[in-house]
Specification:
Blueprint: H1 20-35, E1 46-51, H2 58-71, E2 74-80, H3 90-103, H4 110-130, H5 132-142, H6 147-156, H7 161-166, H8 169-172, H9 174-196, E3 201-209, H10 216-230, E4 235-241, H11 243-254, H12 260-265, E5 270-273, H13 279-289, H14 302-305, H15 309-320, H16 325-341, H17 348-360, H18 362-371, H19 374-381, E6 390-397, E7 403-413, H20 414-426, H21 431-434, H22 452-455, H23 461-471
Parallel strand pairs: 1-4, 1-5, 2-3, 3-4
Antiparallel strand pairs: 6-7
The structure holds adenosine-5'-diphosphate (ADP) and magnesium ion (MG).
Length: about 475
């Protein structure tokens, strides 16, 4: 979806998760904090941890938020830590990124440009002090950004990062200390130039993304960099992480008994969380973007749920199975690719359920594929699902399965519903067709008829998903 955003597009124009209010709040909060920094010295610099599970929209949020901040006159450097993770020291990547963004016209103001250039020069000295051999080739390529050459240079001069993490680089050498100090002063001068220029505002923002995807040693070094180098007056740093993920990988380095949550917290002044998204909305967007309207699938709930029945079913399944936005996107991609290659019309409830097992609950999926037993699937899912997510159903049966004359509406846990559905699909007396293709057993909609060609294909779904899933990243 990001690909469709042109840089000129207004911030959060394609926001499906209602993130804009959070961005506006954070803008006010951080600028408010900074505005009293003259009398509250600890507000002069700030490190915010923006925490959200992987795939819940951190990158989208930072990218769009940066547009708001820039429109308000702030200098913003966006740093994709993962894209720079090849470098042995994160500071090298920082410098390249700052240079890159300066070249793209970070600010037209002459004074700001001049001070930024000076800062880059001081940055080179830090790199030189950190790793003399690395710096020679680095500095050679510094003026023209050439990722490939730099990449080669970095490979040649790999510093032993794992051991440098355990040492404290910044306390080790007088050279590093002096170079770092000069760089920090130069960074402060950039902030001063920003303050004194027309149309620009403080603080300067440093947005760091994808930290949790980096090698743990690199992530730690980056946090140390922020603490020792970038924490200066008038610079506010925002670090987006999946904190649970990051503390796991840090524990992998320091050992199982290491209190990595506490270790991480000392790098941050404050933590903000991104809320869990509204799946109903994102589901509708993704389906319509791929031309998957109501007619694209069979859906036993189409009369009960109306025109957005497919999106509703998929979003309820995603919530019940606790699927992330990114995984949900993958689910839709898999289903779409099956739809394009498989000759029969798909039934979206079972297809959605099986695909989500494949993407988000592989153990349960494997159990289902192997022995088609709904009880074992239920066991494999056990605590990892939300039984409170319910789907509207019609009761057309009495408590003992006898047909009743009147039909009432009710609700049923969608997980329980799907577990019953699996049982019906693999029941050899074939309950799906036993009632004249009228699936009253499942208490789906009375009027929904499983077409014979669909019924015969339901058992193939797990296999179809395995093939399609292996082609989607
Ligand atoms: N508010 C939003 N509105 C629309 N699409 C979004 C929103 N947030 C995230 N997405 C989309 O969801 C996917 C995952 O989001 P991303 O920002 O990459 O997650 P993260 O960085 O947390 O892993 C991307 O394709 C992104 O474009
Ligand atoms: Mg991201």
């Amino acid at each position: 979806m990001n690909d469709e955003n042109s840089p000129e597009e207004s911030p959060f124009a394609s926001d499906l998760l209602n993130r804009k209010p959070a961005a506006e709040f954070l803008t006010k909060y951080l600028i408010g904090r900074h505005s009293v920094s003259k009398s509250v010295p600890e507000n002069a610099s700030f490190v915010l941890n923006l925490n959200a599970e992987w795939g819940l929209g951190k990158t989208y949020f930072l990218t769009e938020w940066a547009k708001i901040l820039r429109a308000n006159g702030h200098l913003v450097v966006y740093f994709d830590a993962w894209a720079n993770d090849y470098a042995s020291n994160p500071f090298v990547g920082f410098m390249l990124e700052i240079q890159n963004q300066l070249n793209e016209g970070l600010s037209a103001d002459k004074r700001i440009k001049a001070s930024a250039r000076k800062m880059l020069k001081k940055g080179k000295n830090v790199i030189q002090a950190l790793a003399p051999s690395l710096a020679v080739s680095m500095v050679k390529h510094y003026t023209g950004f050439d990722a490939e050459k730099i990449n080669d240079a970095l490979k040649e001069s790999a510093i032993d990062v794992a051991s440098s993490v355990k040492r404290d680089l910044f306390k080790e050498s007088e050279d590093i200390r002096a170079a770092t100090k000069a760089f920090r002063a130069a960074l402060s001068d950039v902030a001063k130039a920003v303050e004194e220029s027309e149309g620009t505002a403080l603080p300067v923002f440093l947005l760091i993304d994808e930290l949790d995807r980096c090698r743990p040693t690199y992530a730690i070094e980056l946090l140390e960099n922020v603490k020792h180098i970038f924490r200066v007056r008038d610079v506010y740093t925002v670090i987006a992480t999946d904190s649970v993920q990051l503390s796991h990988s840090i524990r992998a380095i320091y050992g199982a008994g290491f209190d990595s949550e506490r270790y991480l917290r000392r790098f941050f002044d404050h933590e903000s969380r991104l809320e869990t998204p509204d799946f109903e909305r994102i589901s509708e967007f993704m389906l319509s973007g791929r031309g998957l309207g109501l007619g694209a699938f069979d859906n036993p709930f189409s009369q009960l749920l109306g025109s957005s029945a497919n999106a509703t079913v998929l979003s309820l399944l995603a919530k019940a199975l606790k699927i992330t936005v990114r995984d949900f996107q993958r689910v839709i991609d898999i289903i779409d690719s099956i739809r394009l290659t498989y000759p029969k019309k798909l039934e979206i409830v079972l297809m959605g359920f099986v695909t989500m097992l494949f993407v988000g609950h592989r153990a349960a999926y494997d159990v289902y594929r192997r022995d088609h037993n709904n009880q074992s699937v239920q066991k494999a899912l056990s605590g990892n699902v939300d039984h409170s997510i319910r789907i509207p159903i019609l009761h057309s049966m009495g408590p003992h399965g006898q047909a009743v004359n009147h039909v009432t509406t009710g609700e049923k846990s969608i997980i329980e519903f799907c577990i019953a559905y699996l049982a019906a699909v693999w029941d050899d007396s074939n309950q799906l067709v036993a009632n004249g293709s009228n699936v009253t057993l499942l208490q789906m909609e009375r009027s929904f008829k499983f077409k014979p060609e669909v019924v015969s294909s339901l058992r193939e779904y797990a296999g179809l998903v395995a093939v399609a899933g292996s082609f989607s990243a």
